Amino acid sequence: MATWLKVQGMSVEQMLVKLASGMEGSFPSGSTLNVKGQAYKGPAFAAKLKTMLAAYQKVATARVAYNDAVATRDKAEPDAAELARATVTALINFFDGDRVKLAAFGITPPAPRTSGTLEKKLAAKAKRAATRKARGTMGKKQKAEIKATGDFTVSVTATAPAADASPPAPPEAAPIAGPVITAVPAPAPASATNGVTNGSSSPTQVNGVEH
């Protein structure tokens, strides 16, 4: 459907309407217009253009009818849906949920509820609880209920800080190098008279002779 075609920035339908109107009212009377190798008088070419327009006008008329039909359908749809649902329910009851017979009407009945559903749920719950107990697993609430028991009092005694140890003695200074002085005892004073030392009981030698 080539509705995207444009002529002079207008749709084909709009352009045909403009051309037909111009050929009828504005083209010089008695003149001939050559189009695609064929000569046309004004009124004859206007008729040709209107023939082309007939297809577009049919679509426009059909569009109006379509829009009216859609509006009528939308208005009736709630009642139609309600009737359809009621009919499905009536047929399911009539055939007692027989899937084979209801299939001919396009109906799929709901799956029948199995007996003992509550018993199965309770059994499954008991099985899960037993499994958790065997595995030693617990839920958040069970873990939160567990608290440690016993006396956890702790006594704290303040202790005075230990006295500081005596600081180490500073290292002795290395001796300063200097000249070595050796003490030499001075000789005892003696007075000699004729070779005899007074106040001495020890003999002395004078000229090699012990006195």
- According to DSSP, the number of beta strands is 8
Give the integer mean of the pLDDT values.
79
In percent, how helical is the residue content?
A: 40-55%
Task: Please provide the ordered H/E string of secondary-structure elements.
Answer: EEHEEHHHHEEEE
Major sheet attributes: 2 strands, antiparallel
* Largest sheet, spatial ordering of strands: 1-2
Rg result: 69 Å
Q: Please tell me what the overall shape is.
A: elongated
Structure annotation, total helices? 5
Strand coverage percent: 5-15%
Q: Tell me the structural class.
A: mainly alpha
Poorly predicted spans: 191-201
Report the span from N to C terminus. 172 Å
Features:
211 residues; mainly alpha; two-stranded antiparallel ribbon; two-stranded antiparallel sheet; 46% helix
How is the topology of this model organized?
Elements: E1 6-7, E2 10-11, H1 12-25, E3 32-35, E4 38-41, H2 42-94, H3 99-103, H4 117-135, H5 140-145, E5 192-193, E6 196-197, E7 205-206, E8 209-210
Antiparallel strand pairs: 1-2, 3-4, 5-6, 7-8
Helix pairs in contact: 1-2
